[in-house]
Amino acid sequence: MPVYRQWSVILLSASLFITCLLMAVHPLATLQAGVRGLAIWWDVLFPSLFPFFVISELLLGFGIVHGIGTLLDPLMKPLFRVPGCGGFVAAISCASGYPIGAKLTAKLWQQKLLTREEGERLVAFTTSSDPIFLIGAVSVGFFHNPSIAVVIVLSHYLGALLIGLLMRFHAPHAPASSSPGGQGQAGWREALLAMHQARLEDGRPFGEMLSDSVKSSLRLIIVVGGLVVFFSVLLESLSKSGLMQWLYKCANIVLTGAGMPTALGDAIVGGIFEVTLGTSSAGAVSGVPLVYKAAAAVFVLSWGGLSVHAQITSILNDTNLRYPPFLLARAVHSVISPILLLLMWKPLMGNEETVQVFQSLWSVSRNPVPELVAYTPLIFAIVLSALVLLSLLARFFFRLLQRPE
């Protein structure tokens, strides 16, 4: 065993032992933290993620993902160097949030629709939060200010788009997967053929496919819930022990160097571990300009938290996709998105009409998340339709360029 692996095992074992001791010293706080993590999983993650897990499995089994992927090849391959099926992953990830992008990427790799490098590019920019959480939980719930929703959503998703464009340079000499898409080659006929062929290769009856989808999705959602509870307990144990003070001091040094208020240190450190804790802490900070609080929240959302990182690695564990490219993408995304927010703040938030529109959509006196959940399929349909339209336009222009003079 290499030396670095030996040290990593020793450090991990020591960390787990210390965590167990802290849990034994603070049993009541540990129990309360576990209950909070379980409530987040049951009230938010389970109802918002589980249906999409099941539906995505069914769409794969019926070959619909393969057909849509064929249509999206002319757009996704030139821009992001991933097959067209990556566009479907991007659309459903945009609507439902992490970690569904990693789950679908792993499925596509297992079906040999992606190479390792293409999978690493895809999971790097499709791991993003969902608009329901950005608008309902963060803007309205934590910040009590619906007007900041537009700038938070734009900075987060534009940052993800830039990550996708940057990740196309990852492994530049790696071979690409073969598909019928090509640049401007595939149309509706090829898409239907790809969908039919995929359905024949799967061959399972609908009842068996539905049962397998539910079983697979339940296993994954239970893993997600367990990791949320674990990191909630871990963070509470570290806070009770006083060890978090060292991390707060390090965060304050970084914030001072970046010209940001040091009062955001607690939100940054909490967000490094868990998204909900970091964003809620950023919204609760007093005496700090709103623009900096929003930038801290976008940093946390784009980083994803170690809890989400653990979810992604658990999903990718069954593939040969590597974690370091994903880690680098999250780190870059967490820097790009706050910069975009600071650049867009004055043009968007300085417009009184924009502020009034978003202020009138939701009242801060009620929780808008339940009513926003109903719009999740609509968000998915809109994003996917936009991608298909752009791909068809790209196919048309490619044909114009290839037409002999």
TrEMBL record:
Keywords: Membrane, Transmembrane, Transmembrane helix. Signal peptide: none annotated. InterPro entries: Gate_dom, Spore_IM_YlbJ. The keyword Endoplasmic reticulum does not apply. The chain crosses the membrane at residues 7-29, 49-72, 79-102, 122-143, 150-171, 218-238, 250-273, 285-306, 327-345, 372-398. It holds the Pfam family Gate. Residues 45-156 form the Nucleoside transporter/FeoB GTPase Gate domain. It comes from the Bacteria. NCBIfam families: spore_ylbJ. This is Sporulation integral membrane protein YlbJ.
